[in-house]
Amino acid sequence: xxNLLVVIILSYLVGxxxxxxxxxxxxxxxDIREHGSGNMGGSNVFRVMGWKYGVLVIILDALKGALxxxxxxxxxxxxxxxxxxxxFDDFTLIxxxxxLSAVIGHIWTAFAGFRGGKGIATALGxxxxxxxxxxxxxxxxxxxxxxxxxxxxxxxxxxxxxxPLIMIIRENIFHVDIQGYHTILPFSIVLAFLVMYTHRxxxxxxxxxxxxRISFSKKNK
Length: 221
Prior knowledge:
By secondary structure, this protein is mostly helical. The protein has one domain (about 1-210). It is about 65% helix and about 0% strand. The chain has helices spanning about 1-15, 20-30, 40-50, 50-70, 90-105, 120-125, 130-150, 150-170, 180-200, 200-210.
């Protein structure tokens, strides 16, 4: 049990690394939380500092989730402390727990007053190691929605909601055997609601038409 707790804490700390804050400080000498929406995520960096730094932060945030799953989870030794009733082996279940801990760390980072980003990129980095095909489809949804609407928040929400829908379609219509489907599906639904919760202010602005659109111009370098 102590070993599992160590993995959870370390994964949380990895997820807590404030990449947007670090990049904004190093590159521009600013605190990203004092600009734009005040959010410490890739989308706000995208708006304030330009697409190159926004993409850099998104990649770094995704790597946090992947790092927790691929490396930190391997620090777990021994058998799972509880009865594992999921279709996954014990190590895969540890990876899911580590990935979720990293997402929580990103949203409520210990290194920046528990005020972090919205968890999309970190969740992408963690889930792509578990349900790769479904996440690639969801990434496609994100890119299409952002390209058409110019709203990163709408793309993020659409991608999160699309994950359980894609799984349901692949499993039940195309009869693809998705490993751990009955475990991952409810988990992905909960994660989608978590994403909508962290984007609640964006949803409000989308509904009243005041959400900021992004630009792919070169004005921010």
